[in-house]
Write a structure and sequence with these properties.
Order of helices and strands: HEEEEEEEEEEEEHEEEHEEEEHHHH
Helix content: 10-25%
CATH superfamily of one domain: Transferase(Phosphotransferase) domain 1
Distance between the termini: 54 Å
Strand content: 15-25%
Number of helices: 7
């Protein structure tokens, strides 16, 4: 974080990144003195309502964040910046986007939690778009021009007013991570669950384990009805729209998911919270589990990142891919599309056993609508293909030379083929990996 005083004193001369959050009501003119070098500008958490025409001087700007400001109109001046790729306007009050205001160079656009009722037709010119986040707006339809965004991979349209999902959406060749819950086109499904209600009074919270967009997770002791005490994890939802959608949709998906050896197990729903907040109680993940990968970076956009020294054995790759595929097959058998099938949402232990979680982007869908059910599953199959590709990319050359690795490679290619309808179901994927797992004495392909 920088200060306005530093900027005005010239101390940021030559900077490539600037971050200011100091109740700004207008963009400081000194920002434009950095035009030759500035690539990343973060003015989130201010009171900006517009951007000046001088903003066009920032010809080298690649990334710009304006979240939590007072904009009501998407600034048209941004459409004139030739290198701008990533733009964030989360939690403003934007209700209008003019034609060609969105730069055609955009790869990653965040407009979560605004007042947008209509997208401009010119969004179809953003053919480099990979990540489009529109949850928590007032959209009633998707413009047909959006079908031209053939590189779109991650698409968040939960918590809108969309009444119809167009056919072209399910034929986009690279779309892999889709969230559509909280729309009239996908009405809430009845979630039959026998999960017990766990009283807040029966929980003794300890340290915080983590905090995500939708809630806070803490370690706790639970004294259950059998009068025995054991450690659990408690997630208390914030009740706010996230980049993925609504917390209540996440809760419904978690409860509907049921038990599976590769899913984080839900024990019950939280009851009698003093602030009337919703929550879930989970089995505490055993020590020794770690995140399989890291969240996407600015550069990777939609793909997870891994430490440079990451290496998987072939046995680990088989175990991880089989566990994740089996868990996802289980979810789709219950009418759940996870929507965020990623390594960073997967935990693994030293044996390669995976635990899959984080239902923030999940969609509970009507299985009787077989067209929708099949389409959602085939989209998610590509996400699994991306995960499998990551695993194979981190095998040693010797491991990749083995026949079993080559069979995994062939499976990955089938999962990621651009013709959505030709991708396999998760049940087939599980069968194939089980077959690979049971293959003994792997031979070299030399």
């Amino acid at each position: 974080m920088h200060t306005l005083e530093q900027l005005q004193a010239g101390e940021l001369a030559g900077a490539t990144r600037v971050k200011l959050s100091c109740n700004l009501t207008e963009v400081p003119s000194e920002i434009f003195d950095l035009a030759e070098t500035l690539e990343i500008l973060d003015l989130s958490g201010n009171h900006l309502t517009s951007l000046p025409d001088a903003f066009t001087r920032l010809q080298n700007l690649r990334i710009a964040f304006f979240s939590d400001n007072d904009f009501t109109v998407f600034p048209e001046v941004l459409g004139k910046l030739p290198r701008l790729e990533m733009i964030g306007f989360k939690a403003c009050q934007i209700g209008h986007i003019a034609e060609d205001a969105i730069p055609h160079t955009t790869r990653w656009l965040i407009l979560t939690n605004n007042q947008i009722a209509e997208l401009p037709a010119s969004i179809g010119k953003c053919t480099r778009m990979q990540k489009l986040m529109l949850a928590g707006n007032k959209l009633k339809a998707l413009p047909p021009e959006l079908a031209s965004c053939q590189n779109l991979e991650l698409f968040r349209i939960s918590a809108n007013q969309i009444t119809h999902l167009p056919d072209w959406l399910f034929s986009l060749p690279r779309l892999s991570w889709l969230a559509i819950s909280g729309n009239p086109c996908n009405p809430p499904a009845s979630t039959a669950t026998d999960l017990p209600e766990i009283s807040w009074q029966d929980l003794v919270l300890e340290e915080q384990l983590g905090e995500g967009a939708s809630g806070i997770i803490s370690r706790a002791h639970w004294q259950n009805r059998a009068n025995s005490t054991h450690q659990v994890a408690v997630k208390v939802f914030k009740g706010e729209v996230t980049s993925d959608g609504l917390p209540e949709d996440e809760m419904q998906a978690c409860m509907r998911a049921g038990a599976h050896p590769n899913l984080v197990q839900v024990l019950g729903k939280l009851g009698q919270h003093p602030a009337q907040k919703q929550g879930l109680v989970f089995e505490l993940i055993p020590a020794g589990y770690r995140n399989l990968g890291g969240s996407p970076s600015f550069e990777s956009c939609t793909r997870d990142v891994y430490a440079e020294d990451t290496v998987f054995t072939l046995e680990e790759a088989i175990s991880i891919s089989l566990g994740v595929a089996s868990a996802t097959a289980h979810l789709h058998a219950r009418g759940i599309s996870h929507g965020d099938l990623y390594a960073h949402n997967t935990l693994v232990d030293e044996t390669g056993h995976p635990l899959f979680g984080d239902f923030g982007a999940a969609t509970v869908y009507d299985q009787a609508n077989t067209t929708l059910a099949t389409a959602l599953e085939r989209l998610e199959v590509r996400a699994f293909g991306c995960l499998l590709e990551d695993l194979l990319d981190h095998l040693t050359p010797e491991a990749m030379a083995q026949e079993r690795a080559q069979r995994l490679l062939q499976l990955k290619q089938v999962c990621m083929q651009p013709e959505v309808q030709n991708r396999p179901a998760f049940s087939f994927i599980v069968e194939q990996i089980e077959s690979i797992s049971k293959q003994v004495m792997p031979s070299s392909l030399n």
